[in-house]
Write a structure and sequence with these properties.
This protein is of the alpha+beta class. The protein has 2 helices and 9 strands. A hairpin with a 4-residue loop joins β2 and β3. The longest helix is centred in the C-terminal third of the chain and has 19 residues. The radius of gyration is 15 Å and the shape is globular. Keywords: Cytoplasm, Hydrolase, Magnesium, Metal-binding.
């Protein structure tokens, strides 16, 4: 069985087009995580707060970020996919975030093969409501977990997202290649 973090390329044309491995599903409270040792998706926990993921959420293959995890990606979808689904996506924004004192930024991406997102090319193409819902989720989803705090630190453009993907690819290469 292929390891989706190590064996799958970062994307067909990174950082402009990446692969997103879905772990958590839009509209759900289950926090799934890809376990590279199995390899497969496992239930990590159920979110303690009464919130749900605003869109599909997962990681970018062959990436490693400053929080010492694969780089997080939120893929804007109309309908949820499934844990372990690989989505070809285009980064359009970067949400800066602090998770318990660690830099834990999120790439915001759109599916390359969904025409509903053809006009979403950069952070300014996201609606204020989309950004507010995403920020609200990541600011509150750990509120009822003892001692955990998160803070969103603002939005950056597509170029910043692509630069962050390149950084995550370089960190992966340094640590694991």
């Amino acid at each position: 069985m292929a390891n989706l973090w190590e064996d799958l390329e970062t994307g067909p044309n990174p950082p402009e087009e990446i692969y997103a491995v879905v772990e958590c599903l839009k509209g759900e409270r289950n926090k799934y995580e890809y376990d590279k040792d199995i390899p497969g998706v496992v239930l990590d926990r159920v979110l303690h707060s009464n919130v749900h993921y605003p869109s599909d959420y997962g990681f970018i293959p062959q990436s490693y970020y400053d929080d010492e995890d694969p780089f997080d990606v939120l893929v804007l979808v109309e309908d949820q996919t499934f844990p372990g689904c690989v989505v070809e996506a285009r980064p359009v924004a970067l949400m800066k975030m602090d998770d318990d004192g660690e830099k834990d930024d999120k790439v915001i991406a759109v599916p390359s093969e969904d025409p509903r997102y053809d006009d979403v090319q950069d952070v300014d193409d996201l609606t204020d409501q989309q950004k507010a819902e995403i920020s609200e989720f990541f600011e509150t989803y750990k509120n009822l977990e003892a001692g955990k705090q998160t803070e969103t630190l603002g939005w950056e453009d597509k170029q910043s997202a692509m630069d962050a993907v390149e950084h995550a690819m370089e960190l992966y290469e340094e640590k694991f290649a």
